[in-house]
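Message: I would value a second opinion on how I read folds in C-alpha cell form. Give me a protein, with the fold worked out from its sequence. Write it directly below this note and I will take it from there.
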Amino acid sequence: MRRALGAVALFLTVGLFLPGCGGALTGTPIPEGARYRGALVDHLGKPVKGPDASMTEQDAARRIDPCALLDPAAVSALGTVRYSGPGDTLGDCEILIGADRTTPVTKVSLSMAVMPVFTGATTTIGSRTGSEIPGEGLCSIAVAYNDRRAMNYTAHSDGTGSPCPALRTLVAASVPLLDSPGERAKPLRDPCSFLDVMYPAEQTFALIALNPSTCDYSLGPRVRDDHNRYVVRTMTMSKLQLDHPRPGARQLRVAGVPATEYPSGENYCIIDAFAGIDQPYLRPGWGDESEEYVEVLSVSGRDCEVVRDITVAAVRTYQAD
C-alpha cells in the first residue's frame, strides 16, 4: 500500500462535458458498448480487418477466474488461507497464507498479463512450456496458456528459505486446470468501453495491454515517445490511501467520486479515481488488521487536463455498468 504523510493536498472538482458518440459501424458485428473495436489499427496505422482475434481472446480472458486456476488442495497444503481474491489489479488473483504455513511461502499470486515469450532455459510442465525465474525473496513460473498469453505464478517468501520448491509443486498441480479454466460468476467489464463516449467516431486506436482489466491504448498507431498513449487500469486499493496521498498530490472529485492526481515530470500525470468507493470489501492490510479495499481506475498519460477528461469518461462508464 502506498503511504505518504505530510502531503500537500489541493481540492479540485472535475465534472467535464464529454461529447457522446452514438451509432454503430456497419460490417462486422460489434458488441454493445464496444464501437471502438471497429476503429482499431495496427502499428502502421492500417485498419484491422474483420473480427480481431486478440479481442476475442481478451473477452475470453475476462471470463476466467484466475483464483480458480490454482489447485485448492495444493494451496491448502501451504497453510491456512487468510485471503483469496483480486490482487493489485482486478484481473489478477492473490492468496495470502497464515502464520501456520508449512513452507516459506506467505503469498501466491497469478497474473494473466504475460506474453508466452520465454528467454533462457525452459521446462515442460504437464503438456505446456514454462520458465522459472527465481528472485530475492520470491519465485515466478510462467506457463504458456495459448499463443498469445501465459499465466505467471509468483510466490513470496518469509525469508526463511526459497519459495521455489513449494511453487513448483503448486504449479505442477495447477497446470491441468488451464485445459478447462473456471469462470467468474460475472465477466470483467471491458475496460476500454469508455472510448466510445470519449472520442469521436472517426478516431482510431491501437491497443497494447494483455491485462484483461486494463485499457492500454494509443490514439492512432503508437509512436516512439508515447505522447499519444494512455493507460486505464482497474486496480484495487485501500481506502486509507485517500487519507495518505503522496507528497505534492492533489485531491479531486471526479464524476462524484474521490480521486488523487499525481503530476510528474515531462507533463506526465496519474489520476487514481476511487470509482468503487460505495462497494468496499475487506482484506488483510498491514499486520493482522483488515482494511476496506475498493476498485480504483488509475489513469495515466501526458497532460493532466487530458487525463482528467479520460478519467471522467472512464468513471462514468464504470458507474453505468
About this structure: The chain has two domains: 11-62+187-320, 65-179. The mean pLDDT is 88.
